Amino acid sequence: MLSHRSPLPFGRVLPAVVVAAEFVSLAAAYSFNIVSTPRQCENLTVQITGDGGQAPYSLLIIPFGPSPLPNAIEARRITNVAFNTSTSVDFQLRFPENSQFVAVVSDNTGFGTGGTSAAVTVLSGQDGCFNSTTSVEPKWFLHTDPDGVLSSCATTRIWWNSADPQGTPNFQGVIPGGQSFSIPLGATSTQTGTGVGFNWTPDVRIGTTFLLVGGDDRGLGVAGSNVFTIQQGSSSCLNSTSPSSTAGSPAGGSYPTSTDGSGTNSGHSSSTDVGAIVGGVIGGVVGLIAIGLVVLFFFRRRRHHQNSGTKERPVDLLHDGDVGEEGHVGDSRLPAYYQPEPFTLPAPTIASSSHHDAPTSELDSFSQRDRRQSYLSTSTSEQGGSGYVGGMLRLAPSSAPSTSVSRKSPVPPSFRAVNIIQHDDAGPGEPSPEEEPETIELPPAYTNIKPRAAPPPPESTAGATVAEEPTAGPSTP
């Protein structure tokens, strides 16, 4: 197994470990599930889940809410069912349909250690398991002073008639969907009008629905139960462990909470709920550690790149100088790629002609003089001699007239004009000059010719008369 150094600081790891330890302790506790759907006069199955309890287990079914029977007949009794040595129990539920109850599971270590359900609704079932015309009564009654009122952190007297209980009375506090606990029996006293009782200070939060259950040596709940809503009092006795209704899911698994059967258990056990919670917490802790490792990896990688001295730059194959901050290479001069050399012709095999009438020695001197390095030039040389004009080699003119000289021996190599063209990327070429438009002469179309108008009559002169043409009439003999 590879060992690694955790990137999470100890201050962040410790809370996660504490949370995981708390859920592990929950996994070691126990709870219960209402396996079957609660129905009138049918069997109800309850099963213990978890390994934290100590047998023997017991189940307390406490009626809750008003009776649905006509005339408010109360046919429900507080039912105390023992598991004996088993972890499940099956018994007949003698509760009418549409009524409600609260279930509390206990073990050998104390009351309510297995949890408390919320208000469970009984659905329709069979008939004939209870008397719907007569109300049942507990073995004896318990009372409070002030009557019917429990206030937070306010002293309350719980009392009873001295001849009612058998043995030592006991009392329990039940919060539906929350915590249930035993109320310790304090020093009892007898008072006129309130019988035998003791003082108790409810350390329960304001607004909590609270069931006060009484019993004796015959069993839990034989004295019945009273329902209270904790009133405003003092908060001096409250702390983080004060009993209240839990915000999470109540004990008992899934069961009906309304008359239409919503939330009814489908028959499967939810004993793995605690294990799922523990697995989720452990998976979350492992996920946090994995995320921390990934963040640390990227952080170290980024720091490594920042501290690295090498910098990436483009490779210049034509120049190996340093690249400036502006990205320019070297100075502003154009790089000298090459120096052109004039092409030298090989010696001729036959007699050649010379264009100069100078002696041979003078020709040799001319040949040797013009064989030198030439450089690329973009301007015309103002001095005499050979040079390049516009990329063409130009030879110095000779002052002597040209004559023809015949030789039998080979002459030194002569030079030939060579055009050297340097190509560069100077953008698009210059536009070609516009051609002179072509003129085409056409003959006239004679489309505008009109008929000539008749000339006007001549104007009359002074004293002249114009005879009208005679009108044709009948001829006279």
From TrEMBL:
<feature type="region of interest" description="Disordered">
    <location>
        <begin position="235"/>
        <end position="271"/>
    </location>
</feature>
<feature type="compositionally biased region" description="Basic and acidic residues">
    <location>
        <begin position="310"/>
        <end position="331"/>
    </location>
</feature>
<protein>
    <recommendedName>
        <fullName>Mid2 domain-containing protein</fullName>
    </recommendedName>
</protein>
<dbReference type="InterPro" id="IPR051694">
    <property type="entry name" value="Immunoregulatory_rcpt-like"/>
</dbReference>
<dbReference type="GO" id="GO:0071944">
    <property type="term" value="C:cell periphery"/>
</dbReference>
<keyword id="KW-1133">Transmembrane helix</keyword>
<dbReference type="GO" id="GO:0016020">
    <property type="term" value="C:membrane"/>
</dbReference>
<feature type="compositionally biased region" description="Polar residues">
    <location>
        <begin position="374"/>
        <end position="383"/>
    </location>
</feature>
<feature type="transmembrane region" description="Helical">
    <location>
        <begin position="274"/>
        <end position="299"/>
    </location>
</feature>
<keyword id="KW-0472">Membrane</keyword>
<feature type="region of interest" description="Disordered">
    <location>
        <begin position="308"/>
        <end position="477"/>
    </location>
</feature>
<keyword id="KW-0812">Transmembrane</keyword>
